UniProtKB/TrEMBL annotation:
Natural source organism: Catellatospora bangladeshensis
Gene3D superfamilies registered for this protein in UniProt: P-loop containing nucleotide triphosphate hydrolases
Protein name (database record): Uridine kinase
Domain of life, per lineage: Bacteria
Database matches in InterPro entries: P-loop_NTPase
Length: 177
């Protein structure tokens, strides 16, 4: 499906892997990157958590992603960014270069939004039941983070409903397995 789709981000095929927190987006994107690399394709992966400017930047990171990563790649140049340091609560000094590749994978909450779909060769929505996502969150993030993540989940539900992300996705994957 993906490789049959034309490149729409310059010479790269952009894959947007979206879905709610704890659904399995990162795992799915990692497996897809491994499979594509194993078949001889070059792959660049961007995690939107690295582009967020803290907890309140849940959906407003898009212009940063577009300006720093997608626009340069669309023109055949490398993009990049300074990843956010969640412990220091600021962007770090390290520069992560994102090279134009056969496939550019972007994964994270909100990346499959309407603004990106025109450039995407494939949009994927990964879902899982709320109880599974909450249990994963407790293991991954710890109990102390749950109040912040409850608000995060509330906002992502509003976003997904308004954007119709799941309905607009090319592929829907059950990430609960």
């Amino acid at each position: 499906m993906l490789l049959a789709a034309p490149p729409r981000l310059g010479r790269s095929r952009l894959v947007l892997v979206d879905g709610p927190s704890g659904a399995g987006k990162t795992f799915y994107a990692g497996r897809l990157a491994e499979d594509l690399s194993g078949s001889g394709r070059s792959v660049a992966t961007v995690h939107t958590d690295d582009l967020l400017d803290g907890w309140d930047d849940q959906f407003t990171y898009w212009s940063r992603l577009e300006r720093q990563v997608l626009a340069p790649i669309r023109h055949g140049a490398p993009g990049g960014y300074h990843p956010y340091d969640w412990h220091l609560r600021r962007f770090g000094t390290e520069w992560v270069t994102v090279w134009p590749a056969d496939v550019v994978l972007v994964e994270g909450v909100g990346c499959g939004r309407a603004e990106g779909r025109a450039w995407a060769s494939l949009t994927v929505y990964v879902y899982a039941p709320a109880a599974v996502r909450r249990a994963r969150s407790i293991v991954r993030d710890g109990p102390a983070m749950q109040p912040a993540l409850r608000e995060w989940r509330r906002r992502e539900a509003i976003h997904f409903a308004a954007d119709a992300t799941a309905l607009q996705a090319d592929l829907r994957i059950d990430g609960s397995a």
